[in-house]
Amino acid sequence: GQQLNQSPQSMFIQEGEDVSMNCTSSSIFNTWLWYKQDPGEGPVLLIALYKAGELTSNGRLTAQFGITRKDSFLNISASIPSDVGIYFCAGPSGNTPLVFGKGTRLSVIA
Amino acid sequence: KAGVTQTPRYLIKTRGQQVTLSCSPISGHRSVSWYQQTPGQGLQFLFEYFSETQRNKGNFPGRFSGRQFSNSRSEMNVSTLELGDSALYLCASSFTSSGANVLTFGAGSRLTVL
Question: Which residue of B has its CA nearest to A40?
Answer without folding.
Answer: B107
